[in-house]
Amino acid sequence: MPRNDPRADEYAPDRQSCETLLERREWRTLSATEKADYIAAIQCLQSLPSLNTTVAAAKSRFDEFQAYHIEQADNGIHVTGQFLPWHRHYLRTYELALKNECGYQGTHPYWAWEQDVSGLSSIANSPVFDPITGFGGDGVPGTYSVPPDANFTLSKINPAAFKGCVGDGPFKDYVLHFGPGKLVTDHCLTRGIQDDYAEHLTSAAMANATQQPTFELFRVELEGIPFSGAFKMHDSGHLSVGGEMSNFYSSPGGELHPLFFLHHANLDRVWWTWQTMLPQRLYEISGRSTLDPPYQNVTLDTPLQMSASLGPTVPIRDVMDIWSEPNCYTYV
Length: 332
Hints:
10 helices; globular
């Protein structure tokens, strides 16, 4: 396990042990009450006013999380060495907002999509899409049209992925303010569930990723396009849900955070699995830290930027060990 890493004290000399580890569980293992509590916390965050007055379109605390992902999408949170650490920090920041601002008593769940592509006729049958104990089902054809986008190449919008507005579930009437892409428009929650990417979400695909010998090979095998030359777990999870979840920029809000974060929690779980396979992997990091040349290498001191209204900016070293402060969680 990671605490056997003889270099841990060198890499993170100030790390502090956690008094308690929060246990993140898979969505389908939660009781109906626990699922309802999680969804209620999301709705609470949607009702709280934004604290960031510099983003005019952000009406709620929920909006702030989506707006910040859109802002950072061009600043190196994808296809870089900090892709996994940044999203780990982003997810933990979001989890703390649910707990501290909305009184959520649970822990952040994850979506083990590998269980839904083995034996089900369609990923649409996953319990995360249940209209009562989940986040609602597929988009209804004919209920949504992607607005004209003069900067199509900048927003990366694929109209074919937007089947329509979600017609049931707890968020069917919620109005989004950001997206699709970089557009700022009021619109419904959209989806376009498809099974074309199921082969990249299997247990075999996960095993293949965790067998990669270095962090860089592992990250590319998990993240996918463009470096892998083929879709992998990260992009396939987004594309399988479709709608705004499939968009490079606005996916957090498009799926109302739950499915975006449930998806990324599972990716974080896969990374933690890889980390704990060998002691020296706990603080292993590599890759470029910038999208464009001149490229720089990511290090443990590379900052994971976070909006001041959401949470602190921390160095990568602070999020590498989830069993240490300020993380203090594990996966079961």
